[in-house]
Every structure is written in structure tokens, then in C-alpha cells.
Amino acid sequence: MAKETGRVLFVATVARHLLAFHVPYMKMLREWGYEVEAACNPAGEAKAFEPIGIKLHQVPFGRRPLSMSNLKALLRLVRILSRGSYALVHVHTPVASVAARLAARLCGFKPVIYTAHGFHFFEGAPARNWLFYYPVEWLAARWTDGLIVLNKEDYSRARGLPVRGEVFLIHGIGVLPAAFETVDKETMLGLIREFTLGPDTPVAVAVAEFSEVKNHEQLLHAWRKVVRELPPAVLLLAGEGERRRVVEKLARDLGLGANVRFLGFRNDVPQIMACADVVVLTSRREGLPQVVLEAMAAAKPVVATNVRGNRDLVSDKVNGFLVEVGDAAATAAALVALLQDKDLGRRMGDEGKKRAKAYGLPTVKQEMAEIYGFYLAGEARRNNGCRQRK
């Protein structure tokens, strides 16, 4: 694309979301010649934007939708948009996306695009989610020039919203398969020592924030059943979050102290996955889980709950197992099967690796380049009101 001039603003509730998932797209826009800015609650990570040349606007978002801090965040966004001349605003995360779209509406600004990483209203969601989040998104859709979704259920739902512009279905946020293909032997040996693993220890890995949504309780109750059949088995839990202490206590109460390792936040997920026989995710809901894509890229079989997003990536008994939310017994049975039968794990892992190629970063960057170009060029291209991945 020819060099352009202008400014693009990314908005999310917290800095970690933008830094974890959207830096490649920020860099792409900078390569096109745009100044890229970010508006979020930095939560201690403000300096991380400096090396990538992103100007940061600190906005006091709160995680709870009705928090008074979000009213302050709205007023701050109105000031940012009214003072700046932006070619495009790209918003993420539910709270920030509604505040930013309302601010854009109040300022008379467009275009605004929103990536929904997983609607809070979905098949099987609590009634309160539908009563609150659906009407809010239905209203905000009227201020949305482009709505990007990551899974088939959300795409179907999005087509029923009164979106002002286009609806797009893309292949997630992009994964780099090469990062998961080879791991240095010395690094592997170092991790094995760090995690006190034996040469034949059965290992499962879960990479997830400690939150209600990620549902570690189901995993730990399942793991107690696994340990009864495979006493040496070890579960590696990577991540941080407000419920970490609760989950640690549950592990102790279940007598799993010797079979669970709490690793904290890690930057070496590819290396950790290389130690695993299976990757597990017991979420109550998902958008399109990056950890499952990474497991597939690493050729690891996956045990995941049968929820939106997981279903897009895992076919039961093909590249992993799908289990129902709350079914610890089925979760344990799937884990034991893969920990005991290495050939089964390899076959499922190889199938997952083939599927992961469609979700690679080059593919998603091309999809996002087309979407950004669609709005930044101001072209009046239309495709029956929606576009989707093939």
C-alpha cells in the first residue's frame, strides 16, 4: 500500500489486551505511514508502548460496566476525539468499545470499527447477559461502521444487529506457527528442571487468566481424578488473575499440591507447551481462544469445553476432545486418554497443526489489511452488507 498520512486510534479497556494481541496491526499501519495512538487504562504498562512508537492516552476504564470510572473514561474519550483528527478508530473489549463508540457518536466522528472478541450474549449464556449486554450492543451497533467477529456463532448473531456498516468474520488475531515448531533442547531441559518434571512425567498445560470465565475449578476437580489413575501426572498452570489465590487454595484442599505447578505470567508459552502431552482449556465461554490456536500450532492435542469458539477450532475425537462445561469426569477421561496414549496424542496434534495454518498471522494480517484499506480509502465497496472468511 502507498504511504499515507493520518492518525489511527486503538481503544481497549486495559493496555495488556492491545500489547498482547494487536501490536502487529499497529505496526502495519505505521508502515503505511499512519501515526498510531492507543487509549486504555495502562495498568502499569504505559512504558511498553514507547519501543513500538505508539502514543498512549491514559483513560481510567474500569472492568465493571456500571463503574463511575467509565463515565470519566467516556468524557476523556470525548476530549481525545474532539481534539484529534483521526482517519480511523478501532475499538476492542466490551466496556471500552461501548464508551468509545458513544464518544465517537457524540463527536460526530466516523469511521469506527469494533472487534468483538466474544459477545457476552451467546447460546447458553445467563439470562442477565442477554438482558444487559444484548440491548447495549444492539444500540452501539448503530454507531459502528465495521463489526469484526472471530467465530461462526458471533457472526450469525452480528448479522442480526443494526450495524451501520459492514460485518466481517476473520481467522482470529493470528498465530505464528514457526514460534511453536522447534524449541531449543537446552531450553527444554531448563524448564524440565524448573518444573521438577521426570523424563516420563505425564504433563498437561493450561494457559489462562485466573477468572470465573476460565473455570479452573472444573479442571482441578478433573485433575484429582487424573492423579488417581496417573499419580505422577503434573498440571502446569500459567497465568495470573484475581482468582489465583482461590484456585491455589482449591488445589491444596483437593490434595493436589504435588501435582500442580502455578507458573504465574509467562512470556515463554511456546517452550512450556513443548513440555506438554496435552493442552487443556475449561472456559465457560470463549471468543476464539488464542491458547487453543497456539496448542494446535505446537501440534498438541486439546481438551476443551464445548463452547463457542472452542467448537470452531476443536473437532471432537479429531484434533482433541470437547467436554461439557461442569463435567469433570469427562474432562478427566479425555485427559487420561491423551496422557496414556501418546500415539493418539500425536495423531490429534498433527491434525491440529494442519488446521492451525489457516489461522496464521500472515493470513489474518491480510484480512485486516483489506478491512483497514476498506475504511481508510473511503471506498464504497459493499458485499451484501457483510463479508466473511472462506
Number of strands: 14
Level of helix content? 40-55%
Series of secondary-structure elements, N-terminal to C-terminal: EHHEEHEHEHEHEHEHEHEHEHEHEHHHE
Uncertain regions spanning at least 5 consecutive residues: 379-387
Output the CATH class name of the largest domain. Answer: Alpha Beta
Description:
This protein has 390 residues and is an alpha/beta fold. It folds into two domains: 197 residues, Rossmann fold (3-Layer(aba) Sandwich); 183 residues, Rossmann fold, CATH 3.40.50. It is 42% helix and 17% strand. It is built from 15 helices and 14 strands. It is globular and about 60 Å long. About 2% of the residues have low confidence.
Give a nutshell description of this structure:
It is built from 15 helices and 14 strands. The chain has 390 residues and is α/β, with parallel strands linked by helices.
Task: Tell me the layout of helices and strands.
Elements: E1 7-14, H1 15-21, H2 23-31, E2 35-41, E3 55-58, H3 68-83, E4 88-92, H4 94-107, E5 112-116, H5 127-140, E6 146-149, H6 152-158, E7 166-169, H7 185-194, E8 203-207, H8 216-229, E9 234-238, H9 244-253, E10 260-264, H10 269-274, E11 278-281, H11 290-297, E12 302-305, H12 310-313, E13 320-323, H13 328-340, H14 342-356, H15 361-376, E14 386-388
Parallel strand pairs: 1-2, 1-4, 2-3, 4-5, 5-6, 6-7, 7-14, 8-9, 8-11, 9-10, 11-12, 12-13
